[in-house]
Structures are given as C-alpha cells and as structure tokens.
Write a structure and sequence with these properties.
The protein is an all-alpha fold. The chain is built from 20 helices and two strands. The structure holds nitromethyldethia coenzyme A (NMX) and D-malate. Nitromethyldethia coenzyme A binds next to loops. One of its GO terms (biological process) is citrate metabolic process.
Length: about 425
C-alpha cells in the first residue's frame, strides 16, 4: 500500500491535467456581478478562492471531499476499541480525496509520533513565556519558531525548481502537524501548573498522544472526544479567517510554519476560533448570575441583556451557514451519549432551545443557529479540561490539517501570489457617480 507521499505523487500529474482542462473549459465563465456592498461587507459571498479539501453549503454544512460528517464518521478507520474516526484518516482524505485503509492510517500515526519532538530552543521559548501570556500567543510564537528547520525555506534558498515545491511543503506540513501536540501540551502544562510533559508513545494514535500530553490519556472517553474534535474542526472551506490567512501568507512562498502561525493569529480572534473560549466565559457568568438550574425566563433575560449590552451571543451565527452547524450536532450527539446528565450540557441544550428565537426577534443576525464553538467547551469541561483560555489551542491543532492540505496542493498546482484589487471610497464614488 502506498504511503501518503507516494499516493500524492501519483495524484499530482492527473490533477494538474484536470485543473488545466477545467480552466480551458470554464476559465472565462462568470459567477455573476460583484456589488460595491461586498467590498464594504467583508466580501461575503464573493467567489475568490480555490480550496480542495472541503466545501460549505449554507443549509447542509461542511462536506470534506464531498462527504458529510456522518459519512466520514462511518467511513474513516477507527482505533481498536474506539468508535470515533481517527483524524489521521481525515488528513489523508483532505490531501487525496480518498478514504485510507486502517494500515495507512496507522502509518500516519507512527510517522507523526516519530516526528513529534521540538527543538530545545523552542522548548525554552515556550518555558520563558509568562503564564499570563494567552496560550494562543504562545502557540503562534512557537509555531513561527519552527521555521528554523523548514525544509521548504532551505530548498528555496538552494534554488529548488518550482515543480518540486510540493515535496518540502509536504515534509514541513507533516512536521508541523506532528509537533503541534508537543507544543500544545507544553503550553498547557506550563500555564496551568500541570507538571512535566510525558514522552510521546510511538505505538499510540495522534489523539491519544495529545490527550496524554494534556494529562487525560487514561480517560478513554476523553481520547475519543479528541478524535472527534480534531476531525470536525480541521477544515471549513477556504474563506474562513484562519484558512484564508494560511493560504494568503503561503502564496508569498512563506513556508508552512510561518503561514500557519499567521493563520493561528486569525483563529485567536473572538469572532473566529476564540469564540469557544467566549462561550464558556459567557455560560459561566450566566450560571454565576442566575444559578445552575435556571428557568427559561431567566436564561432569556440573560440573553437579551447580552444583546442590549451591544455584545454578540458567542457560538451563534455564521458568515455562511444558515442552519445549525453539523459540527454542533456531532458534539451534541457525543454529549447525549457520554454525558447526558451534565449540568452545563443541560444549559447548553437549554440555550439552543431559546437563543434562535431571540436572535430572530432581535432581527439582526442572518443566522440564528449555533456554530461549532457553542458546544466544544462544555465537552472539555466535563472531563476536567476547564481552563477556557486554552480551548482555541485545540481548535488550532485541528485546523492545521485543513490549512496544510491546501498549502501542499497550492504548491503542487503552482498557485500564484494572492493579490486582489482594493479601492478607496473616493475611487468608488468617482467610478459609479453618474452610472
Ligand atoms: N449575537 C448577536 N448579534 C449577532 C450575532 C450573534 N451571535 N451574529 C450576528 N450578529 C449581528 C452582527 O454583529 C451584525 O450586527 P451589526 O449589523 O450591528 O454589525 C448583524 O447581526 C449581521 O451579522 P451577520 O451578517 O448575521 O453575521 P456576520 O457574517 O457578519 O458574522 C459571525 C458572522 C460569526 C462573526 C457572527 O455571527 C458572530 O459574531 N457570532 C458570534 C461569535 C461566534 O460565534 N463566532 C464563531 C464563528 C465560528 N468560528 O469558529 O469561527
Ligand atoms: C470555521 O470553522 O472556520 C468557522 O466556522 C468560521 C467560518 O467558516 O467562517
């Protein structure tokens, strides 16, 4: 059976041909008009990027290489004794469009475990961060520093032929993904005083190792949660802030480490990945104010107070989705199976019942339904990972899968430098004044 790199090498020539054929046939076709409001309105709906790993439908949610979350849950290989998909398999799917065998997935687990060590100076860099520095800032610093050993940067400096870019990009991407649990675990243990990092177990899968580095390796349900979590947070087509940032920075031929650290800085914003932290802060404050078994009326009043205070309800709304996020549903199903009586889960479910109607009545949000971040924190909290300031780091470990899969294809397909056109208000006014 071929390794991932061998299979990729087989897939690149026919994919190049396919892209050539699609461009020859459809290259001059139009998506329709672009209107001025889209320039002022955060480019909503503007067709602008090629992203191979996944496409997001507003009503149905994400499909990874054409497959829904329930489909990948059924199709991807599982760990012995586990029922959640292994994220190694999802990475294989994102890169190749194919479902790997159990043996190929085990090969990736072993390869990532073997590449997990980080340079000593990066360990020291993390150790020198004050615990008051946000875990996401520490994460992005450490990922930037990995560029010290970038195979792509080195090959570029030595004059590599552009046709070969994908090879060192693949190697850097594999290293990056492999080293993220080590970095994430070290940050967690430093910031929250959890003692020394254990060694990576070369026999275990990626999620098991991550759980173990965080101190939860003995808890089978938590390991299963990590498998699900890393799988569903990995990719959400190309226009979201982290994915687009990684692609944009990569288009300057910045290596995968510095491209991904840029993506992490976007993920760290409260309207994007930091929303998982915001949700838990919001729920905890709600519990402190109205108690743990609050009535629907008390919850509604709290939600309205949030809106009247000029704040968003974290975990609700989406720039593209117009229905409940299937990633929310997958996590809700996990909760119903593993922690149906958890008080915080009950509150999350109560909020799900009440918030959409309130957002509809308030009349501003185009999507009143919950997104992925409305549910992730309560699952982590249940197992004792209740340091909410850390949650976005786990999102960041997962999102590397989607961003690097695209970086590999961008270099394989010779994607050009991104450089869209911008306009000033004056230029727009002049352009359209008498039209
Ligand atoms: N609570 C209150 N107001 C909202 C919400 C919400 N959850 N969602 C949207 N709105 C408001 C929004 O702020 C905007 O107000 P204004 O006109 O005063 O600027 C108005 O509704 C229209 O916004 P939309 O077009 O519906 O949303 P947009 O595409 O601009 O933004 C989000 C999408 C996700 C940024 C927005 O829904 C939001 O802020 N949600 C809460 C934060 C969140 O959960 N982010 C995580 C997204 C998922 N992720 O992981 O990245
Ligand atoms: C994501 O997973 O990136 C978020 O849902 C945000 C988005 O898709 O815009």
């Amino acid at each position: 059976q071929p390794t991932l790199k061998e299979r990729l090498a087989e897939l690149i020539p026919p994919t190049l041909e396919r892209v050539k054929a699609v461009r020859a046939e459809h290259g001059k076709k139009s998506f329709g008009p672009v209107i001025v409001d889209q320039l002022y309105g955060g480019m909503r709906g503007l067709p602008a990027l090629i992203w191979e790993g996944s496409v997001l439908d507003p009503d149905e949610g994400i499909r990874f290489r054409g497959k829904t979350i329930p489909e990948i849950q059924a199709a991807l290989p599982k760990a012995p004794g586990g029922s959640e998909p292994l994220p190694e398999g999802l990475f294989w799917l994102l890169v190749t469009g194919e479902i790997p065998t159990a043996e190929q997935v085990a090969g990736l687990s072993a390869e990532w475990a073997a590449r997990a060590a980080i340079p000593e100076f990066v360990e020291e860099l993390i150790d020198r961060c004050p615990p008051t520095l946000h875990p996401m800032s520490q994460f992005s610093l450490a990922v930037t520093a990995l560029n010290h050993d970038s195979a792509f940067a080195k090959a570029y400096a030595q004059g590599i032929n552009k046709k070969e870019y994908w090879g060192p990009t693949f190697e850097d991407s594999m290293d990056l993904i492999a080293k993220l649990p080590t970095i994430a675990g070290r940050i967690y243990r430093n910031v929250y005083g959890k003692g020394k990092l254990p060694a990576i177990d070369l026999q275990k899968d990626y999620s098991h190792n991550l759980a173990n580095l965080l101190g939860f390796g003995e808890n089978h349900a938590f390991v299963e949660l990590m498998r699900l979590y890393l799988t569903i947070h990995s990719d959400h087509e190309g226009g979201n802030v982290s994915a687009h940032t990684g692609k944009l920075v990569g288009s300057a031929l910045s290596d995968p480490f510095i491209s991904y650290s840029a993506a992490l800085n976007g993920l760290a914003g409260p309207l994007h990945g930091l929303a998982n932290q915001e949700v838990l802060v919001w729920l905890t404050k709600m519990q402190a104010k109205i108690g743990t078994d609050a009535t629907d009326e008390a919850v509604k009043e709290y939600v309205w107070a949030t809106l009247k205070g000029g704040q968003v309800v974290p975990g609700y709304g989406h720039a593209v989705l117009r229905k409940t996020d299937p990633r929310y549903i997958a996590q809700r199903e996990f909760a119903l199976k593993h922690l149906p009586d958890d008080k915080l889960f009950k509150l999350v479910a109560q909020v799900y019942k009440l918030v959409p109607d309130i957002l509809l009545e308030a009349g501003k949000a185009k999507n009143p339904w919950p997104n992925v971040d409305a549910h992730s924190g309560v699952l982590l909290t249940h197992y004792g990972l209740d340091q909410m300031g850390y949650y976005t780091v786990l999102f960041g470990v997962s999102r590397a899968f989607g961003v690097t899969a695209q970086l590999i294809w961008d270099r394989a397909l010779g994607a050009p430098l991104e450089r869209p056109k911008s306009y000033s208000t004056e230029a727009i006014d002049k352009m359209f004044k008498n039209k």
